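Escalation from tier 1.

The customer reports that the assembly of two entities below gives different structure tokens on two consecutive runs. Tier 1 could not reproduce it. I'm attaching the input and our single run for tier 2 to review.
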Amino acid sequence: MNVAIKSIKEQRDFVVSSSSLKQVRSFSREVFEKVNIDQDLKDELVLAIAEAAQNIVKHAYQGEDTDDKMEIKISLEKGHLEIGFFDKGRPVEEKNVRHRKIDDIKPGGLGTFFIQQIMDAVVFKEGEKPWINHLVLTKNLNS
Amino acid sequence: MSYKVTEEGNISTVHLDGEIDMDVTEKAKEIIMPLIEAKKEVHLNLKEVQYMDSSGISVLIESHQKATELGTKVILKEISKSVLKVIMMAKLEQILNLD
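Tier 1 run:
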């Protein structure tokens, strides 16, 4: 796939709140408008980013009101897409992240399931100061 | 998200419009659940829903499960392409009632 633009580096901060999710999607759509990939893939990437942001609101902050911001960085280099999420919420341990089983129709765990379906890799890291959590989603757009 | 509810006999049709994410799921449940609890057959018209995430899908699952428990049903009508894609990604097309 020809991703046309070879290099993108964009980042934006958002208040950690469910009301920010619309802005997260708008930011992601703006960025992917610059990339020559098909609309279905753009929609999937926007969904993956919105789900990861939602997980920060839901799990790292457990839905609590806060003035804290989360930062989202989208970078594309030679077809390799990397999306970073930084937050100052409770530390997320990968072993505690709930993965939905294929035959499980209970609500919950779906966001992580979607992210895993869409992206090539999902890596949880300890954030460097001032951040607590750093989640990295990657996908090769050349394949 | 905006909505409109129409009634015909024991069928309540909820026309949802806009984007359904975590920010509006409580509102969506407040609209849908009382209809199910009143044992109405609920038709959710999703023609004008341009975006739905896992929170929206959770509302569909909870509605379906509540309706089954109370002996009624929730039927998804005129599902937009983007919503159908997410339902299929969640592998729920065989579980939810799609029309």
